[in-house]
Specification:
Elements lengths: L2 E5 L5 E6 L2 H4 L5 H15 L58 H17 L3 E4 L9 H10 L7 E5 L4 H6 L6 E5 L5 H6 L2 E5 H11 L1 H15 L1
Parallel strand pairs: 1-3, 3-6, 4-5, 4-6
Antiparallel strand pairs: 1-2
Helix pairs in contact: 2-3
């Protein structure tokens, strides 16, 4: 079982904490990262692209010229696909690009991402993170104290905190996310992962073995 030190925002040691091996000692499988990141990004596509077919293009109600005797191919409308300005054949239509991924696969990808980040010494745990006011410089100071100045960092909190979220918004490369929304894409695209002690507990409760057992039990009940 891995153990990491817990620090204050001033980089003073405040104890240590044992990490759940199910969450932070999982197998690192890059193909799961690719599948989950692809799923996440596909859901962000707007899917609002569209073209008009021959029914949607205006005009073209009258036959452009007589059927026979012109030496040209017969035409019924100037809005046919082969005509300039005509409708588009099999053009894109508004649709969702998202696709589903097995829940165990998604959980395994996130566990692997956290395990890889820990192996790369990219996980830091702080005892708490509370701001008295909306102060970006306090977040900057905390990152400097932790040795993360100028690095991309993902700060994970356990509950909504408007002051922390707003204070870190303007810092390049720094993001704040709640434990319930922690995902593979954000973990991989930041060099460091800064978790509060409460957020760490929430992440382990979400991804731990007990959670998986409950999901398996529900699946068995549904199958019966």
């Amino acid at each position: 079982m891995a153990t990491v030190d817990v620090f204050t925002t001033d980089n003073k040691k405040a104890g240590d904490v044992d990490l759940d091996p199910v969450v932070f000692e999982a197998s690192v499988k890059p193909h799961l990262f690719q599948a989950e990141v692809r799923r996440q990004l596909s859901r962000r596509q707007a899917g609002t692209h569209a073209t008009k077919n021959r029914a949607g293009v205006s005009g073209g109600g009258a036959k452009p010229f007589r059927q026979k005797g012109t030496g040209r191919a017969r035409q019924g409308t100037i809005r046919a696909p082969q005509a300039a300005g005509g409708g588009i054949v099999f053009g894109p239509v508004p649709r969702g690009h998202g696709h589903k991924l097995n829940k165990k696969t998604r959980r395994g990808a996130l566990r692997g991402a956290l395990s890889w980040k820990l192996a790369e010494s990219g996980v830091k745990v702080i005892d708490s993170l509370e701001l008295e006011a909306y102060k970006t410089k306090q977040i900057v100071a905390m990152l400097e104290n932790l040795g993360l100045a100028g690095q991309s960092a993902l700060i994970v909190i356990d509950a909504p905190n408007a002051q922390v979220e707003a204070s870190a918004r303007n810092i390049p490369g720094v993001s704040v996310i709640r434990a319930e929304g922690l995902n593979v894409y954000d973990v991989l695209r930041h060099k460091a992962l800064v978790l509060t002690k409460a957020a760490l507990a929430a992440v382990e409760a979400r991804l731990g073995e007990s959670t998986e057992s409950k999901d398996d039990a529900k699946a068995e009940e549904a199958a019966e």
